[in-house]
């Protein structure tokens, strides 16, 4: 049975809404907003999310219950920097920090008012080099050739491909997204 998530502070029912491309659970009384970890990958930088999730593995219990499962969330403090490099050249010194509550089981992160604005926004991915474009083209061509052969083949591989396509259309969409990312972005933008 699905129970509507509740604000970890006032226990009011959270409202699911979209903010651009993100789905967020917001407290109607303004106590904060929560995101699933997968949603935050669309908004936040990967290095901060990696540190947040790594810190959640060993963090101490927090002060609030998870809006999703009512289990204890953990409190994680991470450093913030403007780049997306997690180590080595290009990794800038932390310019601040933020403390968030995380539910490891539900992969849910709660932001009190203003905390989301502290998290650096995701930077656009750099354009691939000509060598990377050539490699992607070779992989795409090989994938298309092998997939076409699998669909034509009535063997075990062909039956497997048909089964996956029928039973797991989301996985097929995921593969399409990985392989045809730029073409899909252009189609969606049109």
What's the β-strand tally? 7
- Portion in beta strands: 15-25%
- Report the span from N to C terminus: 40 Å
Mean pLDDT: 81
Question: What do these coordinates show?
Answer:
- By secondary structure, this protein is α+β, with helices and mostly antiparallel strands.
- The chain has helices at 37-40, 46-56, 115-118, 130-152, 156-167, 169-179, 181-189; strands spanning 15-19, 22-26, 33-36, 61-65, 72-80, 96-103, 108-111.
- The protein has a 7-stranded antiparallel β-sheet.
- The chain is globular and about 60 Å long.
Question: What topology emerges from the helices and strands here?
Answer:
Elements: E1 15-19, E2 22-26, E3 33-36, H1 37-40, H2 46-56, E4 61-65, E5 72-80, E6 96-103, E7 108-111, H3 115-118, H4 130-152, H5 156-167, H6 169-179, H7 181-189
Antiparallel strand pairs: 1-2, 2-3, 3-7, 4-5, 5-6, 6-7
Helix pairs in contact: 4-5
Defining key terms:
21% strand; alpha+beta; 190 residues; seven-stranded antiparallel sheet; globular; 7 helices; single chain
Give a quick precis of the structure:
The protein is α+β, with helices and mostly antiparallel strands. Helix content is 39%, strand content 21%. The protein is globular, with a radius of gyration of 21 Å.
């Amino acid at each position: 049975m699905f129970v509507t998530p509740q604000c970890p502070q006032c226990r009011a029912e959270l409202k699911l809404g979209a903010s651009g491309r993100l789905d967020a659970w917001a407290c109607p009384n303004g106590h904060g907003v929560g995101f699933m970890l997968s949603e935050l990958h669309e908004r936040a930088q990967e290095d901060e999310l990696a540190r947040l999730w790594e810190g959640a593995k060993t963090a101490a219990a927090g002060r609030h219950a998870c809006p999703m499962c009512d289990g204890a969330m953990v409190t994680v403090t991470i450093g913030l920097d403007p780049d997306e490099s997690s180590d080595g050249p290009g990794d800038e010194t932390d310019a601040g920090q933020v403390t968030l509550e995380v539910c490891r089981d539900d992969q849910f992160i709660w932001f009190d008012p203003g905390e989301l604005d502290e998290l650096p926004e995701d930077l656009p991915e750099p354009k691939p080099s000509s060598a990377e474009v050539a490699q992607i083209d070779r992989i795409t061509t090989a994938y298309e050739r092998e997939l076409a052969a699998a669909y034509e083949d009535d063997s075990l591989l062909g039956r497997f491909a048909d089964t996956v396509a029928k039973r797991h259309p989301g996985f097929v969409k995921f593969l399409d997204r990985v392989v045809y990312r730029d073409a899909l972005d252009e189609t969606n933008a049109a």
